[in-house]
## 1
Amino acid sequence: VSTFRLLIVSVALAGCDPTPVLFKAVAVGAPVVAAGYRSLDAADKDQQNAIRAEIKDDPQKAQADLNAHLKRYGIAAISLDTTMATMQTALDSVPALKAAHDKKATMDLVSTLFKLYEDVRQELAPLGIDVPKVTP
Amino acid sequence: MMSILVELLTAIAQAAVAYEQANEADKAALEGQARAAIDALRGTRSAAIADHDARTAETQKEIDDALKVHPLGALKDPSVP
């Protein structure tokens, strides 16, 4: 019986599941991406207020400005949506990663998430959208 | 001597099993935390997009109304700056 117990523990310790690191990567990234959406919303509000202010004097210019703004908004929203979708995919892939005992794939996914957080931060900064920095 | 060694290894094994079980509880807590964070993120996104859609509809209506009464509104293509 003792030998059997030893065998179980050896298997458990050798398995050393890396998925908690993945959970942590999602947990720390989600509030940051949420802050990005809030910043996007605040920028949208400011821009649309500015556009409304010019409607009376020049509705054609207001329309052109709105079109340009919506284009920029769409680009920023897609970046944030892509990040969120990748986070969800990472969570959804946990059972498969656990079943495969694929530590490398799990850690690659964690690296991808942190790279994505930094990419979206740098991509949106020029558009005036503030995504805080995530530190691992 | 052999039985002492087996007992010692058994004690270590039991401690390791207890550690692994505690670790499983931590993992489950972390997973719950990650899923809750994603749910909160979805809520934030939905609210932001809904605000944007409502705001845009309102701005567009104001522009459309202004174009109807503006002297050049009927003549100019709004998509041309």
## 2
Amino acid sequence: MDRDPEPLPDLPRLPQARATVTLADASLDLHCAYAALDRFATAHALAEETRRDLGLAIDEMISNIAKFAYAKDAAKAVRLELSIDDDAVELVIEDDGVAFDPLSASPPDTGAGLASRKAGGLGIHLVRHLMDAVVYARVGGSNRLTLRKVLSTMGRSAIGTAGR
Amino acid sequence: LELLADDTDGIRILRVRGRVDSATAQALGDSLVGSLTPPGARLIADMSGVDYLSSAGLRVLLLAMQQAQKANGRFVLHGLNSRVAEVFEISGFNSILTVCASRDDALALMAA
């Protein structure tokens, strides 16, 4: 008589390689974006530094959208999408505001003295330094910013690599 | 964001804990500028509990330093973690803010 086949071991559930979140209000719902990033970072065992850099990029770019693309009427949606491949995390941020290319801003004067120092433009300046690629496109009636953060050998912990 | 002020011998030490971003920077800015409004005020910001600082945070630190200069006060920071230090570096903020390696250094600078 045939023996029952051995039950298959539970396969580890692979994390979704893509996560999307829509913020209903660009000026108020930053914490929703952080929560989505934290879930994504945990699922893919992203290094703490990678998570923080992506968090900073989300903060800077969404506050820019609230300030400029949506100007006085910031209670509008922003769409975020996080995805990961072998080399990098990609973050796409989309809004339906007026055409606004944050990359067109002139770089801040980071050498000015205290009295004449301005704080404007530092956000995109930081993001350009902390991300490996930042691309802007106007697509239909939307602004789309695509940011790429390369995973260094330290970009992902050993547990994350083993689980993939 | 958590802010804890302690006044000793005419020096205020403000412990800052948490994330300084576009949602929380205003509270930090109000506290810093408020502390630096009396003429000659001396303020040390202990940043060791700050794990994250965005350009909104840089903006209020800049305003605080400008206020310190205006009111003939002193404003010193210490306890930056490596990420916050990197943000300072990228933004060129080391040339306009006074950053000490330790609280003792900050206190010594205040006494000088």
## 3
Amino acid sequence: MSMAERTAQVTWTGDLASGNGTIERVGSGAIGALAVSWAARTEDESGGKTSPEELIAAAHASCFSMALSAALAKAGHAPDQLSSSATVTFIPGEGITKSVLAVEGRVPGMDEGAFREAAEGAKDNCPVSQALKGNVELEVRARLSA
Amino acid sequence: VPRVEREASVVWEGSSAKGRGAITAGSSGAFTGLPYTEPTRVGAPEGHTSPEELLAAAHGACFAMSLAAELSRARTRPERLDVRANVVLDEVEGRGHLIVASELTVRGRVPEADADGFAAAVAAAHAGCTFSALIEASAEVTIDATLEG
């Protein structure tokens, strides 16, 4: 049985529209302090500020990549490299509606169909997908690079 | 309706047990090339972030914004909110690793709010925070909130 707890500390000052937030620190020390604001979250230009949606995209892409590498290794085709992304859609007032994963893999000895199937499996089963499932539309586009 | 997209990217090399990845905030550039591995995801972090830590940061930031909105709507503007999010990944019999909980600890300095008003805003923020609803498929969200002063 392995259990992992991961923590982040955020502060906010003022109201939503004109106030400011800071992701002060995370347990690992890997990120922080990072500024966040409602304007940066909801406008087309992020102004260099991260947002809950970008952090979810980072969590989803990283979780998916690890799950896919595990599935490929299990099938005897550990990847040389997986290059993945997640794009998360937020509609203010409605919520987070969608996360689209895309992955390009360099996987010796594997054919395109098997790779796409493994990517579908990782999209359905990685822990972040399992948490989001049913509440968010999930999609994956997978292809092998030459 | 305005629609916002945010993107992050990852490069992963090798098998899950021995490989490593690097995480980049594609839309903002707020972080680039953060290393992560399987051993540091489930064991001691050794300075490496993980999907769960990024979710904790997302949840903390999302809840802080929701609570600021609810308090302002009730005409009790927050001076300062401190939100700690703790995301728990656990191995569940027959289902592998799941994100089972996100525990929020909130402290608010809200000069014009009383205890009931603050509690009502916390409940509304919980219902309204898009992230809390999002992870319900596998995780339970709990909130421990205190009004300071």
